[in-house]
Specification:
Length: 219
């Protein structure tokens, strides 16, 4: 994790309460504030699709996501837990004019940081890896590529939020919390948390498992 992002994370977390705070605008839902960092020139359409998908998946688990941007006005009072998400690389649908080498071995699509055995609320999506995985299958779609790419990112972020909110490095067998995603998983019309995962997300936060970094891979 870079020094500047550690500093940003520490500054934001200094005012954050414990997990489990209800959202006043969504009674019964636990609010989570997600600070998003993107590269300069990031297109809006994939980000909007990403947020919509992550919102929908976390709603099923009893959470309401409130999105903010980094850099931004971090002086705004936050009465909810904070997560920082970074989109790394070129986070948009790959174009045919820029050929991408296909993935030949499992590679991390997204990761969550861990320090001294504690799962930290800091995650990132490796868009260059995601683009290499999706370049060929996305070529079959017209007028939906940015939406599908963004929806795929939303599923990866929901997976990392599972690690953060349950404070575990372990995975479940099926659904959004499984350890490896295929192109079919992130592009299929319906992809969700399975029932055992939803039960874990709705429980009080457990203690962290020991790990150095959680990397969630393609297969």
């Amino acid at each position: 994790m870079s020094a500047r992002l550690v500093a940003a994370l520490v500054g934001l977390l200094s005012s954050a309460p414990c997990f489990g705070s209800p959202d006043a605008t969504n009674p019964g839902k636990r609010a989570v504030v997600v600070y998003l960092r993107t590269s300069t020139g990031q297109r809006a359409e994939p980000v909007q699709a990403m947020q919509k998908e992550a919102n929908a998946l976390m709603e099923t688990a009893g959470y309401h996501l409130e999105w903010r941007t980094l850099p931004g006005d971090n002086s705004i009072a936050v009465d909810a837990p904070i997560v920082v998400v970074e989109l790394r690389g070129n986070c948009q649908s790959p174009t045919g004019s820029i050929p991408l080498a296909p993935l030949t071995r499992p590679s991390a699509l997204a990761s969550t940081a861990v320090s001294d055995g504690e799962v930290l609320p800091f995650s990132w999506v490796e868009c260059d890896t995601l683009s290499r995985m999706l370049a060929a299958p996305l070529s079959k779609y017209e007028n939906k590529q940015e939406f599908l790419y963004g929806r795929a990112m939303g599923r990866l972020i929901a997976h990392e939020l599972y690690h953060i909110l349950t404070k575990t490095r372990h995975h479940d067998t099926d659904g959004v919390a499984k350890p490896r995603f295929s192109a079919a998983d992130v592009l299929t019309e319906h992809f969700s948390f399975d029932t055992p995962t939803l039960a874990k997300l709705r429980e009080p936060v457990a203690s962290s498992d020991s790990a150095e970094e959680l990397e969630d891979e393609t297969r």
